[in-house]
Amino acid sequence: MFADLHLHTTFSDGTFTPEEVVSQAQRHGLRALALTDHDTVEGCPRAIAACRTAGIEFITGTELTGEHNNYEIHILGYFVDPLHQRLLSEMAKFQAVRQSRIHEMVAKLNGLGIPLKPESVFALANCHSPGRPHVARALVQAGFCGEMDEAFERFLKRGKPAWVPKFKMSATEAIALIHEAGGLAVMAHPGLNRTDEIIPDLVAAGLDGIECFHTKHSTAISEHYLEIADEHRLLVTGGSDCHGLSKGKPLIGTIKVPYTHVEMMKAKVAERAANGGLLLADGSVSPITS
Ligand code: AMP
Ligand code: ZN
Ligand code: FE
Ligand code: FE
Fold it and tell me: Which of 13, 37, 73, 108 is the pocket-test mutation for ligand 1 (most atoms within 8 Å of CB)?
């Protein structure tokens, strides 16, 4: 019994609809899945319905972008309440930041002599949470680049001429927001960022888990983070970070996380809820006192 806890859909920069993700998960025999679209949970209601039909367990999730000591890190929020008011209003702010960033990136491309129109990026993205992959795809579609990687290498990567920094919340704010919405905060793909030195700070801020298994983690990297999880008593998670067909072959099915990790996550959420969900700054739950 396995799970994939890192999946993107058309509600952010993935190319599969929630229903397509669920049918792929079914094809790969997954017992559970989580959607982790950037700055949104909008795909969750449709995924819940499709999972119910497919007999797959669904976990609500999102992927927030945070910053700590000038490092960009991604924080996954699992089991968040998809109707939580402050979570939704904060995510709406970051969606607005993403939309204005598209205009800024397109303006830079125009300055480089590439007549891409923001409307073509928004039409292609067709979601509230657009990102660089949509700009890359628009560049490919209009024939300005041969493939997405070329668009990133020439224009969109950090430091390249059409790159625009993204306003981010602090990682500790992201963790607190996820907790406030009833969820578990998990550091995404630490092996991609190699920012091990900030892990103790994040643990102190209440980090619940770490994504040890990820498509871009070698066996050695996964083992390294399993040790770190053990050292800090963090939950272990994992997922494919599948973006559909936007990066060639879909990655769903390439990472299969043993379901026992999902059970441990559920136990932690349940324990917190049973304790009234009152979280202290260090991520522990305050005992109920009368
Ligand atoms: P953004 O959130 O707009 O900064 O875009 C980040 C997204 O771009 C992440 O989901 C990455 O997976 C994706 N990304 C980064 N580099 C590349 C690349 N070379 N090709 C395709 N997607 C990429
Ligand atoms: Zn993405
Ligand atoms: Fe990420
Ligand atoms: Fe992701």
Answer: 13
Nearest protein Cα to ligand 1, atom 16: 152
Q: Kindly list the strands in the beta sheet with 169-170, ordered across the sheet, starting from the edge strand earlier in the chain.
A: 169-170, 61-68, 71-78, 184-187, 209-214, 235-239
Q: Ligand 1 site: residues with CB under 6 angstroms?
A: 13, 38, 131-133, 136, 148-149, 152, 166, 247
By most ligand atoms within 8 Å of CB, the mutation choice from 6, 10, 105, 152 for ligand 1 is 152
For residue 38, which of 184, 199, 243, 176 has the smallest C-alpha distance?
243
Q: Is the pLDDT of residue 199 over 80?
A: yes
Mean pLDDT of the chain: 94
Give the Cα separation of 46 and 15 in Å (integer): 15
pLDDT digit string (tens) for 4-40? 999 999 999 999 999 999 999 999 999 999 999 999 9
Ligand nearest to the CA of 187: 3
Q: 3: which DSSP letter?
A: E
3-class DSSP assignment, residue 118: helix
Beta carbons within 8 Å of 205's beta carbon, 6+ residues apart: 171, 172, 175, 176, 281, 282, 283
Q: Which residues does residue 65 pair with via DSSP β-bridges, in sequence order?
A: 74
**Tokens 């041969």 appear where?**
146
Phi and psi at residue 39, to the nearest 5°: 55, 25
Q: Which long-range contacts (CB under 8 A, 24 or more apart) does 57-60 make?
A: 57/3, 57/31, 57/32, 57/33, 57/262, 58/32, 58/33, 58/34, 59/3, 59/5, 59/32, 59/33, 59/34, 59/262, 59/265, 60/34, 60/35, 60/183
C-alpha 201 – ligand 1 centre gap (Å): 26
